[in-house]
Amino acid sequence: xxxxxxMVVVSxxxxxxxxFALSQDKMAHKAPAHKAELSDAQYTKTALSGAPHDIAMxxxxxxxxxxxxxxxxxxxxxxxxxxxxxxxxxxxxxxxxAFFDALAKHENPPxxxxxxxxxxxxxxxxxxxxxxxxxxxDNHWVVTGPHIxxxxxxAKSLGLSESADADPTKPxxxxxxxxxxxxxxxxxxxxxxxxxxxxxxxEEKK
Length: 206
Fold this sequence. Notes:
- Helices cover about 35% and strands about 20% of the residues.
- By secondary structure, the protein is of the alpha+beta class.
- The chain has one domain.
- Helix 1 packs parallel to helix 6 and helix 4 crosses helix 7.
- The protein is globular.
- The termini are far apart.
């Protein structure tokens, strides 16, 4: 019974993350070609690099192929699931996955606190439009270095800047004024996510 319960939890987590990734399909198709060239081993290593070592050790890994089909490369043992989301390594807990699932379905997110690690930074997102998939002249595109995302109602009470033109070197609220507002907490110097994948591929060839 215990193993069965664990399988259900993991499956739900993976499915929720899949919903978020598929909702961003348009931008995902614009990802650098090198990402598609990663072997499963390279992809796993890169995806896990988005989380702290102790979290990554037990985290699951999912990958989407060119047709949008989701494949589980590794089962989660700690409730966290990692993947490359829009080219960036991202690892979130089950509550985070529920948040992203609500975002994908344009539904109100759950009233739960979630934590997502993106310790290799991201490749940018609109700070005002949760559905934006590319930079425009007026959608306040912001690229954030290594950071942690705090999701859920608790994040809104932190008193962080809600400026549309956020300073990504300081904590700020992304998508302020929307149901999907969440805290972005920088934790280090920027390391472009695209460089993470390149480094992983280079190391495996050695």
